[in-house]
Specification:
99 residues, mainly alpha, 2 domains, two-stranded parallel sheet, two-stranded antiparallel sheet, 3 helices, 4 strands, 8% strand, rod-shaped
Length: 99
């Protein structure tokens, strides 16, 4: 069952309750928690966020030649240099770069 399916099921159970008891409060809390978890999963895991933050810090390219360079993070060899200018980001992994 996905978070969205659980939210729908809990919302249905909440409307089916005849009295405003602790059960309804518990269902409200569970629905809010699932909605928040769903939002966090859309952003990504903590590890993914840390990895992306690290990629924003520019790294010096390796093996810089007239027509090619190698990304220091993923090892991708880019042979599409225009006018000997290193792009701002690796085309393969998104690492910020400088020469």
């Amino acid at each position: 069952m996905t978070e969205q399916e659980a939210i729908k099921a809990l919302t249905y159970l909440k409307t089916a309750c005849t009295n405003k008891s602790d059960t309804v409060k518990a269902l409200d809390t569970a629905i809010k928690a699932l909605i928040e978890i769903k939002k966090y999963r859309e952003v990504g895991t903590l590890e993914e966020c840390r990895e992306n933050k690290d990629k924003q810090e520019p790294k010096k390219v390796t093996d810089l030649h007239v027509d090619a360079f190698t990304c220091p993070s993923c090892g991708y060899e880019d042979t599409t240099l225009d006018y000997k200018q290193v792009p701002k980001y690796c085309r393969n992994c998104g690492q910020a770069l400088y020469d």
